C-alpha cells in the first residue's frame, strides 16, 4: 500500500490520544460486472474513539463503496475480495465484522455502528410515523424496553437533533427535507453507537440547513463522544470538522493525516491538487463549525488570527 501517512499516530490538536474503535486493514472491494471494477483497493485506516475522520476524494473514487463495505451494506455485484474490518467494542471485545452472521450483523448495526447515507432522508418509510420508526428500531434491539422509556428516548433524540418532539406523530411527507434528514440522524444515534458513518449527509439540503445540521452533529459528537467517518467531496468542509482526513483516489487511500497537517503540508500531489481546486482554501481554515481554535494555519505555514 502506498498511502502517504502524515504523522498518523499523532493525536489531532486539542484531543487526547485516543484508542482505536474501528480498524480497516487492506480492504479490497470489487464490482463483479462484465468488466470487474476494483472500486476500493487495499484500503487501511484506523478510527480512534471520539474522533472525526474525514474521507475525501472526487466522485467515483470509491468513498461510498468503502463505507458500505465497512458496514457490510454492500450488495452484489459488489464483493469484498480481501481485507479485515475490526470493531473494538468499548466493553473490550474485538468484533470481526466481516465474519458476523446475518443475525449478528442486525444486532451490530445501529447499536455499535450506524450509517446515514446519501439521500437518507428518502429512506424513511413513507407510510409510517416518525414515532413508529423510532420505536421499531429501539424495540428490535431492546425488546424489553417499556412504552414510557421508548417514548422518553424517542423524544430525547428528536430534541437533540433540533426537531420538536411533537413531530413524532408526523409522516415523512409532512416534514421538510432538513427535518427528515435530522430524523435520520436521530435514528442513527438512537442506540448510542460508538461509530457513525455519515456519507454526504447534507448534500441534498440548502446551505443554511446543511450548516445547522453539521453544527448539531459536531456538538453532539463533542457531548456524546462517538467517532465519525464523514464522507464528502467537500474538502473545505472536511478541514473544518475533521480531526484527521483520508484522501482517496481511484479506489486507494493515498494520504491520511491530521487535518491541519494535511492542509499545510500535503504530501501527495493529488491532495495538493485537491486543496488547490478550492479557492476558499487560500483564506483561513474554516471557522464556522468548529470553535475553540483562535489561530488558523495557512498553507505556507504562517498563522493567521481568526476574524
Ligand atoms: N453497481 C456497480 N457496478 C459496477 N461498478 C460500480 C457500481 N457501483 C459503483 N461502481 C463503481 O465503483 C467506483 C466507486 O464508486 P463509489 O460510488 O463508491 O464512489 P464515490 O467516491 O462514493 O462517488 P460519489 O462521491 O459520486 O458518491 C466507481 O468507479 C463506480 O463507477
List keywords for this structure.
single chain; 307 residues; alpha/beta; Rossmann fold; 2 domains; seven-stranded mixed beta sheet; four-stranded antiparallel beta sheet; 9 helices; 13 strands; 26% strand; globular; disordered C terminus; binds adenosine-5'-triphosphate
Write a compact overview of the structure shown.
This protein has 307 residues and is α/β, with parallel strands linked by helices.
Class computed from helices, strands and strand pairing: alpha/beta
Fourth CATH level, the homologous superfamily of the largest domain:
P-loop containing nucleotide triphosphate hydrolases
Low-confidence stretches: 5-17, 286-307
Number of helices: 9
Question: N- to C-terminal separation?
Answer: 41 Å
How many β-strand runs?
Answer: 13
Task: Provide the CATH topology of the largest domain.
Answer: Rossmann fold
Beta strand %: 25-35%
Helix content: 25-40%
Family: Belongs to the ABC transporter superfamily.
GO molecular function: ATP binding
Keywords: ATP-binding, Cell inner membrane, Cell membrane, Membrane, Nucleotide-binding, Translocase, Transport
Organism: Micromonospora humida
